[in-house]
């Protein structure tokens, strides 16, 4: 049997969860060690996987004492976001194939025979976020006796997040597998920190590198270069791990390419199938801006979802500007699949919802197939967010697809959901990673609901407790009967009163339960934990500040209620990083880092993370009576200010995950590693500049180490084009006047905000066909377009120009095009986006929302074709055309100002 510290089967949730009327949340089991997945067998057994490598089995939902099915902790690297993260049962588990499948971070470095390689830690060096403790991943099948058969070993991972993901059986009986990119979350990682996974081409050349996050694009590598499994969805044979028959690339020579059915993901942590179909619905955890729900309709082809070249439909801040060949090829062909639904960090999923929106981390998806919820929930899609601690629901629409216009907040202030599963009783279950619980959300609208209070619920023995079950309810006020288990023996034989009393004489923890039954025979249970005796007292000695890379020593002690010291075996430590929003440092999510069991103290190398973040150290003590207490301390980082400057000032630079106009200053952790980047070329004031290098101690891979104190400045040097050498002449020549700034082309009508209103403008600026319609715009009125109705202008060929406009696209298409000379496409949907094309005679540059996203060098063909607008479905507002190339600050000016 497995000891569980606190068992609360049927207990009310400790969190202040907010649910629709008629729904309740209860805690099925607590005291579990970092549960991640719950699976229900047809014979009533419930399997719960723990991040540390365990799988426990409960005989039923009423069982409070699980049996350990398997312990893989020696194989599993349980560190930060790594661990045993995926588990599922064979679809014929009770009819001849009693197999359990697991997916875990394998504590073994590729090419190194040592196993375990690191233990559940990462020393420095190499450091978890500096050079990384490199491991791999494993997909295994477990027999009924726990014997492990390894199906796949791969997924090289350098950094401690975006590890392996989920497992699901499809309706075709094949096993589907997901995993993240295993790359750095602190910078645009292309393999520059050592390239330990051996990806092809020079890892220090960002233009040709294919490591780091770019491993998510390895399916598209040319023949002869190895394909890896990171950032992909696999479809494999559950007996062999080989690619399943019918996979799109089944005939390919590379065994990994044969397995992959979708790629271009950052961290497809959880996915599910839409009932009655073969569609996969995939939650991809975003980086800085976007969380995605992706729909994979079939396995006839292999869609590319764009990471790291794109985040959502937007070019990634780093990979979109470094000139990387993999991403540039993708940009040129626009060969990515858009998300079915996405939501931005800092924006509510549902307008006005109560969920903290500063961050995001999609963590679970489930389609509802049961009958226990009201009828409107049939086939509805539920999804959860770990950071926002919320669950949303989108109801089924046309063809059974989720209609995202019906999206509602279903549960707020939930605990820490890391998976969603529908149970055999039609309730929705989720694994609460951080508090160690499995929680159940059920509909009680037409059934009795038990409710219990206890006064007092804790105190010294002998403890007289008055229970009250009169808060229980039944539909239409039907009469209830009461049965109590007050001594915690599992038998409801201690009282039938509505308000019993009970005296507890022995120290310890007892879970008292009430079962109410209505006249029709339906029943429900609720529970209340009673703590008898004084809790242990816990003390921690630890520093209150840290610097990245230094060794933190900490120790602790505990005493029971008599003052006797508890042994080290009674102590358990946990260290976590609390990563907070830059816009609101009170909104934080948690990354478990490391645990120590049975030690009075330990040491750890202070980890690196994006600021604002801090460490949370907790110590839990359990006395001889099973009473436990936890003390938590916060350890804050020392910080410094980094300034990025450009020479000349005003050019765009990247620090960490942020692109901004230099000079700018940001606060980071002292001694932290930070990435810096500069675009190869930029235009400022009409002058093209070429990046020449950094001053101030930037590594060849674009990394800087923040100082231990004070400040630091790193300057990106740019060079203008060379000044032509004048031809010798006896006659002095006058210096030409400065070039005039770009000016608005005069033939444009003055009222661009509303666009042309009369046919007299046709030929200079008008529609080819159809009727003009004005609708609400970005500023004032806009033009509504259906993809067929367009308008055109016919300027003379220009040696330099800028075309810019605001676009609200509900279907992708072309915003503007001039014959074969140039084209401005849009793939963004359902939000206003500013798009611009500039050409300075040497390069065509594309901007989205003021940020440079693509550069194409070379002369443009001189086309006399009209400049046509509107080959997309949506709205167009504030069109501007200039006879010169604007730079980023000038475009930003136009973005703020409406055309008058």
From TrEMBL:
Keyword terms, alphabetized: Signal
Domain PKD, chain residue ranges per copy: 448-532
Residue ranges of the region described as Disordered: 191-223, 717-739
Keyword Signal annotated: yes
Domain of life the protein comes from: Bacteria
Keyword Cell inner membrane on entry: no
Protein name in UniProt: PQQ-dependent sugar dehydrogenase
Organism in which the protein naturally occurs: Solirubrobacter phytolaccae
